[in-house]
Amino acid sequence: MKIPPRSILLLFFFQIAFVKFSLSQDTLQLRSAEIIIGKIITIDDTEISYKLSTDLNGPTYIIRKSKVLYIFLESGTVINYSNQSFEITEKRAAQLAKLNKYKNSIKWEVLSSISNDICFGYERHLFKNRTIELKVAYIGAGNENIEGRYHSKGYFIKLGYKFIEPNTQSVRSIYGSYLKPEIGFQNSKSTIYISLPHSSY
């Protein structure tokens, strides 16, 4: 069967257009040989989120890194996962998934006892890499009336908003490298105990 030259020419231009379209998007090549063309949103420790090229305003999809062989970015960068083992990260992902439903954390600052204070904190996960934290402390809980030493009594309250660096959190977004601007209020007073010498005759 002879194919008309015009059909060959149309097929040639179609292939060029398809290649050009693919290069203008991010491409995921899966280990199952499936190809996904779209726009990558984020690349985390264990997951990759993306939008399909046919619906960039549509929903965001998430796929495990362990299922991906290569990522071809629009910029021309190629990310190779062919030689990486995801045994540890998969285990961590399972732990994170188990703890994913917990959004609240109550903490006790152990080191606060060194300065004779008691400090408790409450942290709530708002959304990815963002938490809000409240700290309340009683100052001078363990102070004793020792002569010649200052003794502080009071309390302080701090409220901070935590910006956690991506890919550093260990459990949801409760821990990790972060920037946390905060405001605080403190009310305390200090006293010193001095015993005056006395003599009896």
| SSE series | HEEEEEEHEEEEEE
* Uncertain residue ranges: 16-23
- Please report the number of helical segments: 2
Report the portion of residues in β strands: 35-45%
Strand order of the largest sheet: 4-3-2-1-5-6
Proportion of residues in helical segments? 10-25%
Overall structural class, as computed from helix and strand content, comes to alpha+beta
Number of domains: 2
Total beta-strand segments: 12
Major sheet size, sense and barrel closure: 6 strands, antiparallel
* Cα-based radius of gyration, to the nearest Å: 30 Å
General shape: elongated
What is the residue-averaged pLDDT? 75
**What is the terminal-to-terminal distance?**
133 Å
Provide a descriptive summary of the structure in words.
With 201 residues, the protein is an alpha+beta fold. It has two domains: 80 residues, Roll (SH3 type barrels); 89 residues, no CATH class. It is 16% helix and 42% strand. The chain is built from two helices and twelve strands; from the N terminus they run H-E-E-E-E-E-E-H-E-E-E-E-E-E. The strands form two sheets. A six-stranded antiparallel β-sheet has the order 4-3-2-1-5-6, with no helix packed on it. Strands 7, 8, 9, 10, 11 and 12 form a six-stranded antiparallel β-sheet that branches. The chain is elongated. The protein starts with a helix and ends in a 9-residue tail after the last strand.
